[in-house]
Amino acid sequence: MSIQARAGSMALMLLSLPLIPRPAQAVQVVPVPGQSRQWDVPPHVHFDELLHEVFWDITIIGVLMAMVAAYFLFAYRRRFPDEVGRLQKLSPQAALGWMIIPVALFMADDIYLFAKGWELHKQYREVPENAYEIRVTGAMWSWTYTYPNEVETYGELKVPAETPILLRMSSEDVVHSHFIQQYRVTEDLMPGRVTYMWFMPDKVGEYVVTCREYCGAGHSSMYGKVIVMAREEFDAWLESEAAAISASATVASAQQVVSPAADVSARDFGR
Asked: Is residue 259 part of a domain?
């Protein structure tokens, strides 16, 4: 193989590395990091606070830049038709100051916002140890939620208020993205991989769930809702659903026992 071919192969391999999932991600079974950190304020509240800070930051910087630009336009305007501007030379110290000071100010602001954003990201990825776990399965074009006692709901995620909710998610077909706008949280679902997200439902009510990843012709109809219930109401609902499943299983088992006996009686009658 020539040197050029080897270099081309190496470059192609390096470019393709970001597209190859890490082995640990590809075979995730328990992808939730173990930790016992408790959050006094839900992540979505911090998200809104940080977003407001960013908006204020952009507004203040924009106004200051506009004021500086307006001043320059006025102070260095042409005062008569034949006036020719002249370049004012700066000393090395002044040139260095005009370069370093603005960059330092902007970088300090950016690093401050980045640090707060990183802390928010950690808060979204570190799940409280007392979280209530629900399995989520995405399929074109619906959501299935499975509770610890095997109760299933379709398109409706019922959760207790004031309890951290952990969603452990996978897809049956293509890539989906489970997005709950109220709690400012979204995460992709992929075939053959388990992903997770968590949120804190702090108020009783109903909120929209949508898919944020285009998944085919029915993508726009892949929505549902989060129903946040009082803890007592949620426990009663879950218990009644589990009892209904148990009753159905008992009836099905009884029918399976009766059917062979009926077949034997029919054969005996035929004799």
From this structure: no
